[in-house]
Design brief:
By secondary structure, the chain is mainly alpha-helical. It contains six helices and no strands.
């Protein structure tokens, strides 16, 4: 090739990867909705065991691990954290049924309170994405905290309010899923996610979609 001729770009374009957040959000929505309907007495806890373990646990952990391969630290830790939470919770239910490594007393509400604090911490990083994401995490934090305090204080009313906050979080996650799915499959923005609460240091937004 002539040295004066322009260099030919022989780079092979990389295939577009699917967004693991699609299944992560789906798992969160279905598991949270199922658990809170049981908390409100609409259904029994048997569904929580299976749906929580599969959609809340396996699906979210899968989404978290796939986020690792695309370098998405935020969703790697968030989906893994709540995925393993959902694997532990059905284990608590199974232990109670079988009397094997049964978790009783303050251990379960304390475990939920730990994840309420985690959700609150994740909210600040999520606030650099848009409005809907940190609001979802804030609802998760409030809901889990109220259910935990309600259990400690033997106050079903607090637990009921917490369940409604978690149902709100499920609805917000579904809202995020609608936007993400439409953008990834049709290239269209169908619902607004709102501006980030915290401006990224580089001045550019990092929308969830």
């Amino acid at each position: 090739m002539d040295a004066a001729s322009p260099a030919v770009d022989r780079a092979i374009p990389q295939p577009r990867r699917a967004d693991p957040g699609l299944i992560g959000l789906l798992g969160f929505v279905i598991a949270t909705l199922t658990a809170q309907l049981a908390h409100l007495g609409v259904q029994n806890e048997s569904a929580v065991f299976w749906v929580g373990a599969v959609f809340g646990g396996v699906v979210q952990v899968t989404a978290g691990m796939l986020s690792y391969f695309i370098g998405d630290d935020f969703h790697f830790i968030v989906y893994n954290a709540f995925g393993w939470y959902w694997i532990c919770m059905p284990g608590f239910l199974l232990g109670g049924e079988l009397g094997f490594f049964e978790v009783s007393g303050p251990a379960r509400p304390l475990f939920s309170m730990m994840f309420a604090v985690l959700a609150l911490g994740f909210m600040f990083a999520g606030a650099m994405h848009n409005t809907a994401l940190p609001l979802t995490l804030l609802f998760v934090a409030i809901g889990l905290a109220l259910e935990s305090v309600g259990s400690f204080a033997s106050s079903p009313a607090l637990g009921t309010v917490g369940a409604w906050f978690l149902l709100g979080a499920s609805a917000l996650a579904f809202y995020l899923l609608i936007e993400k799915f439409a953008w990834r499959t049709m290239g269209r923005r169908v619902v607004p996610l709102g501006r980030p609460w915290i401006a990224p240091h580089d001045g550019h937004g990092d929308p969830e979609s």
